[in-house]
Design goal:
The protein is 34% helix and 22% strand. The protein is an alpha+beta fold and 420 residues long. It is globular, with a radius of gyration of 21 Å. Bound molecules: acetyl coenzyme *A (ACO).
Length: 420
């Protein structure tokens, strides 16, 4: 298949959140540090009732249901996550539980694990399968899910949680540009999880931000070197979706691309946008993609696809066809890529948007907890993470309908998941 597309996107948002202004007061930092300095409004989080596996189960089951397809229509299922719940047993194998009733066990794909980059690696695998001789004509599903939690300190307000599931196949509205990818990978200890019994990373925050911005330069350079003719700078794009550890970094990233264009613009091709008002540029390129990042926080492997979902919902549907969206992804350790998506109007766009709204409307249905309650939940998660046998104590009545949750872990560490 030559024309591989994203046919549908479904976003899963935690039912609980903490407000970042409340957190500023609780952490006794100067007013505005999290809300202005990091650009965050709220942060989603999960109790011990949810883990990366249950987020994946919720995302995939709701994607299939909302789009009216059968589990037997799926020929490949890719999971992108940086959470290794059962280490040698993948989240993909847990998801096969959903396929049992359909009798479809012929489903390729397995987990792609790396800080934040796993979701993009999973997407690239699904695209490659669909373009290859191994493709059997069925759809691929990509799901990215993580719970981003940090130890007490500077990094904690940049947490979040969530999942995004995507359907990949022919004939849809989001076309992934062929042959246009920039990638940069290297060995750096900026963020990693050497303690397998803890959800918290060891993080060198400043180094990770430096790495993010440096790899952005490299990926942009590599992506642009593959463009033939026409615009070879930001003018190529109508919007840019960046991996969003926090919203301020996304704004800095846009500025960085402008700087790159300025430095490389020997022929003056990008004169128009160099003279464009900065506020207008931010409004056009990044603001529409920050809805979920600002109100849910970092979702690690799902982050950039939450940004894509936010963009698609923030622009009036009639203005979407013809738009080209740049996508940049950074994973610590480090792994980064840039690619682009073109929106086409083939009659499928309105269905995609309607289904997308079903997940995102949950933003306004969440329960706001206090920073004390949030801190207690995190402390409890940390203490109980690998206990067996174990029965979660979180309040099921706070979960959204249709959510898969962890009902218990037995003495052999076997996890039981059910849906509400
Ligand atoms: N009002 C307004 N702005 C403020 C205020 C205030 N009261 N106080 C501080 N600020 C600004 C600072 O000037 C700074 O702005 P700048 O970035 O434009 O310089 C910003 O808020 C952040 O403040 P710092 O003191 O620099 O940040 P801090 O040391 O608290 O840590 C960091 C920030 C490093 C991002 C930390 O939250 C972290 O480690 N996060 C996790 C790592 C991360 O997200 N890495 C990114 C890529 S990797 C990944 O996705 C995990």
């Amino acid at each position: 298949l030559k024309d591989v597309r994203i046919c549908a996107i479904h976003v899963v948002i935690p039912s609980l959140y903490v407000d970042q202004t409340d957190l500023e007061r609780y952490d006794r930092v100067f007013e505005g540090k999290y809300t202005v300095g990091l650009g965050q409004k709220q942060m989603g989080f999960c109790t011990d009732l949810e883990d990366a596996n249950s987020l994946c189960l919720t995302a995939v089951s709701q994607l299939i249901e909302n789009n009216g397809i059968s589990y037997s229509d799926i020929g490949r299922l890719e999971v992108g996550t940086e959470t290794i719940t059962d280490k040698s047993k993948s989240a993909k194998t847990v998801l096969m539980k959903l396929f049992e009733a359909s009798g479809n066990f012929q489903v390729e794909g397995i987990d792609m694990t790396n800080a934040c980059y796993g979701g993009t690696a999973a997407l690239f695998n699904a695209l490659s399968w669909t373009e290859s001789s191994a493709w059997d004509g069925r759809l691929a599903v990509v799901v990215a899910a993580d719970i981003a939690v940090y130890a007490k300190g500077n990094a904690r307000p940049t947490g979040g949680a969530g999942a995004v599931a995507m359907l990949i196949g022919p004939g849809a509205s989001l076309v992934v540009d062929r042959g246009l990818r920039g990638t940069y990978m290297n060995h750096v200890y900026d963020f990693y999880k050497p303690d397998l019994s803890s959800e918290y990373p060891v993080v060198d925050g400043k180094l990770s931000v430096d790495c993010y911005l440096t790899t952005l330069d490299r990926c942009y350079e590599s992506y642009l070197s593959k463009c033939r003719g026409g615009d070879v700078g930001l003018n190529r794009f109508d919007s840019f979706v960046f991996h969003a550890p926090y919203c301020k970094l996304v704004r800095k990233s846009l500025a960085r691309l402008y700087m790159n264009d300025f430095v490389h613009d020997a022929g003056g091709k990008n004169e128009n946008h160099q003279h464009q008002d900065w506020a207008d540029a931010e409004k056009k390129f990044t603001e529409p993609s920050l809805l979920l990042a600002s109100r849910v926080g970092n979702t690690y492997t799902a982050s950039v696809y939450s940004g894509l979902a936010s963009y698609l919902l923030s622009v009036p549907p009639e203005r979407l066809p013809g738009k080209r969206i740049g996508v940049f992804f950074y994973g610590s350790g480090l792994a980064s890529s840039m690619f682009s998506i073109k929106v086409v109007d083939n009659g499928c766009l309105s269905g995609l948007i309607i289904n997308l709204e079903k997940g995102v409307k949950r933003l306004d249905e969440r329960t706001r907890l206090t920073p004390e309650q949030f801190a207690n939940v995190l402390e409890f998660r940390q203490k109980s993470l690998h206990r067996a046998p174990y029965v979660p104590v979180g309040d099921r009545s706070q979960l959204f309908p249709g959510t898969w949750f962890l009902s218990g872990i037995d003495e052999m560490h076997r996890r039981r998941n059910f849906d509400l």
